[in-house]
Write a structure and sequence with these properties.
It is a single chain. By secondary structure, the chain is of the alpha/beta class. It folds into two domains: 9-18 and 107-226, HAD superfamily/HAD-like (Rossmann fold, 3-Layer(aba) Sandwich); 22-102, DNA polymerase, domain 1, CATH 1.10.150. Helices cover 45% and strands 14% of the residues. The protein has ten helices and eight strands. The longest helix has 18 residues, at 42-59.
Length: 229
């Protein structure tokens, strides 16, 4: 298995691994879009979000910054909600909404597992392609506020899966890359990218927990069993 005795740090992706939007993203876009004149249905918006995110994520350069991410989301909202009457106001409302800690929830298995890993002596970090809004979110969520090591792409200048992102994570942890385990929900960003940089990685598959393979875990709580000696 990937977890040997010398594993010292465990770094978690954020959205889709530790936290999720509540209400769901498409519900918020629908609600805000309606206030700004959109006639798109929830299902249409949900599909647009998936399509636009895939398209834009694939075309993104790995280098980034706070201003770059801000413009990414401005363009993203404009493409998803192209029929609103005031794009700037619509974007501002959505951008501020997802900066609120109350807009996010931890998955049920996260907090007890975080505490259990702390008790076992593991050092924990967050490694995310979010932007600096993530700090306010984590600071207000029980369990995550005590994870002080946070590597955020817009702050370090590189997005996952670029090796420079993972080099920054390794520097923050202060150990050899092989002593860090990444847990995330994205096969390319969280697993392939980490492994290419010399880290260990596990894919969390919350949506397909009946099809777990050797390098997958169905939940954060599964780590406790894997880490037992």
């Amino acid at each position: 298995m990937l977890l040997e005795d010398d594993c010292q740090w465990i770094a978690f992706d954020a959205v889709g691994t530790l936290i999720f939007a509540d209400p769901p993203v498409h519900e918020v876009y629908h609600r805000v879009g309606q206030r700004h004149g959109s006639s798109l249905t929830r299902l249409e918006i949900r599909q647009r979000i998936a399509d636009v995110f895939l398209q834009r994520n694939q075309s993104q350069f790995h280098a980034t910054s706070e201003s770059n991410d801000h413009e990414f989301w401005r363009d993203f909202v404009a493409e998803v909600l192209g029929d609103v009457t005031d794009r700037d106001s619509c974007f501002s409302e959505l951008y501020e909404w997802f900066a609120l800690p109350s807009s996010w929830r931890c998955y049920p298995d996260v907090v007890p597992t975080i505490y259990a890993l702390h008790e076992r002596g593991y050092q924990l970090a967050i490694a995310s392609n979010f932007d600096d809004r993530l700090h306010a979110v984590c600071d207000q969520l029980d369990g995550l506020k005590n994870i002080c090591k946070r590597v955020i792409s817009s702050e370090v200048g590189w997005r996952k899966p670029h090796h420079e992102f993972y080099r920054n994570l390794t520097d923050v942890c202060g150990v050899d890359a092989s002593r860090i385990l990444i847990i995330g929900d994205d096969p390319q960003n969280d697993v392939w990218g980490a492994q290419q940089a010399g880290l260990r990685a596990l894919l969390i598959e919350r949506r397909h927990s009946d099809r777990i393979e050797d390098e997958e875990v169905p939940s954060i709580s599964s780590l406790c069993g894997l880490l037992e000696t």
